[in-house]
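User: Round two. Same drill as before: sequence, then structure, for each protein.

Assistant: Same drill it is. First protein:
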Amino acid sequence: MINILELRGIKNVQKGKLKQKIALIKKDALLFAQGKNDEMEGKIQIELSKSNLPGKWNC
């Protein structure tokens, strides 16, 4: 079963990839960096959701 943290991670990865594509079209380096940041944050959230650590994030 998928949990909240994993859903947020998937959303952030997709948001980051979209920002990167838009940044390439607009030639905006700052937006591209923000997209990379969102993507990395999402990947971290996905990995954390797979761990069995107790806490408020694993629902």
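Second protein:
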Amino acid sequence: MGNDLWISSFGENWEENTLINSFTGRYDFSSVLFNNKIYIFAGICEGWIRTNDIWVSYY
């Protein structure tokens, strides 16, 4: 289970962002794209720990 964060201006050239990475790896989460932002809701982390947080990525 990973928690990599990758950034791209136009979806062509991608760079891994290693400066800000407090996002915990998870699966079984929900996500939605709204107003040019990606929202990630909840999920399950390693050890079957359920989360109820929300992460937002925007540009």
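The mean pLDDT is 83.

User: Perfect.
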